[in-house]
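User: New here, please read:
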Amino acid sequence: MKPAVVLLSGGLDSATALAIARAEGFECFALSFRYGQRHAVELESARRVADVMRVKKHLIVDINLALFGGSALTDEIAVPKGRSVATMSQEIPVTYVPARNTVFLSLALAWAETLNCSDIYLGVNVLDYSGYPDCRPEFVEAFERMATLATKAGVEGRSRLKLHTPLISLRKSEIIARGIALGVDYAWTSSCYDPGTSGQPCGGCDSCLLRQEGFRELRKPDPLVERFKAA
């Protein structure tokens, strides 16, 4: 089996991307980050997803983007609540963490090169996204080009990095349907920007609202919400 590094946040999209990588025959090395985010719920979800999906290895890397601040996810800035889907895409929101995907992908690239791996999976999405510039196809294509110039494997012509973005043009409902077909248990994923201490989703942030809309379109209950109802 060829190796692939999979960026795993513990959220719905990254769990689905991991399931797709497995289904496409890759031996998966999951990479998560403790990057100064205000809650650790998503890392607990990442651990659970990585364990259930039996990845070859799961690393949680410590970096501290909170030193720079500038985001509602790393700084004392209120997380927006109750916004419409149309409003979400009008401007880059305060939940955007400056250069986060660039930093994450750079470290994924470093691990991939040591694994003699030329495949990285990430769950970015351009349709149901909240205005993030580093979720666009243009960013993905530019990073691939940069990686060829920045790595020994690329310069020597032994391999060219391929960033797999299987969710990039799917609606949230299509992502969920794909994951369900692959056996993803969404009860243990965490999408919320502002969860409670027990991990309960707030239900009002952009990420929660997009997730709710996806399950609503499929006419299915969200297993995460059902888990907390049963608790």
